[in-house]
Amino acid sequence: MYRLSRLYPLHIATLLLVAVLQPVYFAQHGFYFVYQNNDVPHFIAQLFMASDWLPPRSESFNGPIWSVSVEIVDYAAFFLTLRFVTASPLLNLVVILASITFGTQLGTSLAFFYAGGLAAMARQAVVFTRHRRMLEAMAGCAAIAVPAALWLADIELVPVAGPLLLTYAPILLFCCSGQLTLPRRIETVLEAAGNMTYSCYLLHFPFQLAIAIACAAMQRPIPYGSHLFWVAFVLPTLVASHFTYRWFEAPAQRLIRSTLLRKKQAGRTSPAPL
């Protein structure tokens, strides 16, 4: 409930925004901007965040939502395994191995999700051990040694990218998830930046689409190579992301959570029907 209330409101808002803007671009050029599958079936799949659950991939509307669509399946699998099975390092390993054999985008996503789970379990396990400092030092050395060895050996990364990331990413997560105390001002800035990531991710394509429509209306080419244009695109996107979170995402989250949790709590406390 908490995760979906974080993801869904902005997804729907940007989906509707792109659904309005893409026909304008189509009227100007005779084809859509970047993502061509903007029909009713793809719109319905987008409504349920199901656009990329099955191959082949067919990116549509606000295309960057594909990664969130895949993550939704991860969250569902995570919930179901915790609810009906258990949580253990062995289960994580089984899921990772099974996911790798799928050879699909969903399988890869599940493998990385549960590899992150192993990193979280490892971090939790060493918190209260007397060897914590030594284990953290070993992980830090591994985090440095792996890329250094790859560089010195001049190994081609593309063929080994999957296995490398699957083993190296949990090491980095373990190293970066230790207790870190920062000044309050820096914490506030980092929290604001973290809150902006999702809105920035979903807003950047509608911004690009709006710029393309405006340039076509003015009969001017898009100045891709201009540094000033790049700044004029990135800064407004970041500012819009900040205010989108404050004025839309956060209020929508509070409304959804308070409504659904209140209903859930009411259902628990109300007397059984006669």
* Average of pLDDT: 88
* General shape: globular
Structural class: mainly alpha
Number of helices: 9
Secondary-structure element string: HHHHHHHHH
Helicity range of the residues?
over 70%
Distance from first to last alpha carbon: 30 Å
Largest sheet: none
**Unreliably modeled segments:** 270-274
Radius of gyration: 23 Å
Describe this structure in words.
By secondary structure, this protein is mostly helical. It contains 9 helices and no strands. It is globular. The model is unreliable at 270-274 (pLDDT under 50).
Topology readout:
Layout: H1 2-29, H2 40-47, H3 66-84, H4 89-102, H5 105-126, H6 132-153, H7 161-176, H8 184-217, H9 227-269
Helix pairs in contact: 1-8, 1-9, 3-5, 4-5, 5-7, 6-7, 8-9
